[in-house]
């Protein structure tokens, strides 16, 4: 049975991409080697053995930390029931969740009538059931040296690209052309709510008939 390394579990409103506005249960996995300089979850990058805590300690934490604890898929389902969460949509994020096989995790929730979504950089094989909604946020030239996989670009149900500069837009256009992506919905997400990034995203969305994703949760001050 896979022991997933979990950083946090919380219920909120999905603030990004096609499911924006959907009440969702977020399962955040620990660990990511990709190294995006502007990453808003840097506390999830390292898996330090000294940061492993008990399930109880993890569930009691009230701030962002690099602490993690292991849970099986059925532990996570039991927790969600115990906490009385009402959302029926599960978002698996991180960190980079696709460093591990997410099939048992998604299947556990599929079998209980939940929908599932994974947020991934597309730099690892995406091991999820067919029904899982896959959001690929392709990463180009990040510090960790990982590259986007062809299989990830093809599997994506949506492509959500963080941008702040024209270069980021050019990188995305090159990726879409290289992988012959034509019908997948494309979202531009301004990096860190910067006003120039937001203006650029708006004008680029209009020019290309792409969609805008503005990380709604940050504007309304929720998790
Ligand atoms: C924190 S990542 C975790 C999942 C996975 N590692 C990935 O990159 O898709 C979740 C989403 O937030 C985006 N993101 C991270 N930091 C951001 C920032 N400062 N501004 C806008 N989007 C950001 C990522 O590109 C990704 O779409
Ligand atoms: N509300 C909310 N929506 C989100 N969508 C993607 C998130 C992520 O960190 O992956 C995220 C998050 O952290 N909070
Ligand atoms: S791939 Fe995702 S979690 Fe990893 S550094 Fe980039 S944005 Fe952060
Ligand atoms: Mg986030």
From TrEMBL:
Coiled-coil residue spans:
none
Quote the EC number.
4.3.99.3
- Superkingdom: Bacteria
- Name the enzyme group at the top EC level: lyase
Gene Ontology molecular function: any one: lyase activity
Q: Which UniProt keywords apply?
A: 4Fe-4S, Iron, Iron-sulfur, Lyase, Magnesium, Metal-binding, Queuosine biosynthesis, S-adenosyl-L-methionine
Residues engaged in binding substrate: 13-15, 28, 93
- The residues the record assigns to binding [4Fe-4S] cluster are 32, 36, 39
Binding positions for S-adenosyl-L-methionine?
38-40, 95, 137-139
Positions with a binding annotation for Mg(2+): 41
Under the heading InterPro entries, the entry gives: 7-CO-7-deazaguanine_synth-like (IPR024924), Aldolase_TIM (IPR013785), rSAM (IPR007197), rSAM_QueE_proteobac (IPR027609), rSAM_sf (IPR058240)
Relay the cofactor remark from the entry.
Answer: Binds 1 [4Fe-4S] cluster. The cluster is coordinated with 3 cysteines and an exchangeable S-adenosyl-L-methionine. Binds 1 S-adenosyl-L-methionine per subunit.
| Residue ranges annotated for the Radical SAM core domain, each copy included | 19-223
User: What pathway is this protein said to act in by its record?
Assistant: Purine metabolism; 7-cyano-7-deazaguanine biosynthesis
Q: Which reaction does it catalyse?
A: 6-carboxy-5,6,7,8-tetrahydropterin + H(+) = 7-carboxy-7-carbaguanine + NH4(+)
Q: What cofactors are annotated for this protein?
A: [4Fe-4S] cluster; Mg(2+); S-adenosyl-L-methionine
What role does it play? Answer: Catalyzes the complex heterocyclic radical-mediated conversion of 6-carboxy-5,6,7,8-tetrahydropterin (CPH4) to 7-carboxy-7-deazaguanine (CDG), a step common to the biosynthetic pathways of all 7-deazapurine-containing compounds.
NCBIfam families xrefs: rSAM_QueE_Ecoli
The entry sums up its family as follows: Belongs to the radical SAM superfamily. 7-carboxy-7-deazaguanine synthase family.
Q: Assembly state and interactors?
A: Homodimer.
Could you identify this protein by its name?
7-carboxy-7-deazaguanine synthase
Q: Which gene encodes it?
A: queE
């Amino acid at each position: 049975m896979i022991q997933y390394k979990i950083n946090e579990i919380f219920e909120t409103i999905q603030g990004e991409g096609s499911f924006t506005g959907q009440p969702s249960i977020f399962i955040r996995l620990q660990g990511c080697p990709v190294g995006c300089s502007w990453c808003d979850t840097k506390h999830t990058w390292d898996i330090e053995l000294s940061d492993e805590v008990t399930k109880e300690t993890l569930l009691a934490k009230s701030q962002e930390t690099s602490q993690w604890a292991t849970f099986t898929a059925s532990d996570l389902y039991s927790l969600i029931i115990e906490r009385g969460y009402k959302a029926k949509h599960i978002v698996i994020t991180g960190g980079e969740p696709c460093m591990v096989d997410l099939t048992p995790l998604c299947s556990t929730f599929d079998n209980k009538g939940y929908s599932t979504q994974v947020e991934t950089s597309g730099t690892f094989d995406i091991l999820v059931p067919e029904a899982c909604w896959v959001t690929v946020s392709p990463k180009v030239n990040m510090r960790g040296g990982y590259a986007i996989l062809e299989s990830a670009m093809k599997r994506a149900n949506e492509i959500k690209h963080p941008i702040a500069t024209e270069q980021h837009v050019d990188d995305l256009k090159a990726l879409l052309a290289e992988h012959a992506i034509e019908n997948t919905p494309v979202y531009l997400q301004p990096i860190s709510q910067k006003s120039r990034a937001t203006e650029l995203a708006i004008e680029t969305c209009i020019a290309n008939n792409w969609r805008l994703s503005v990380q709604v949760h940050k504007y309304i001050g929720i998790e």
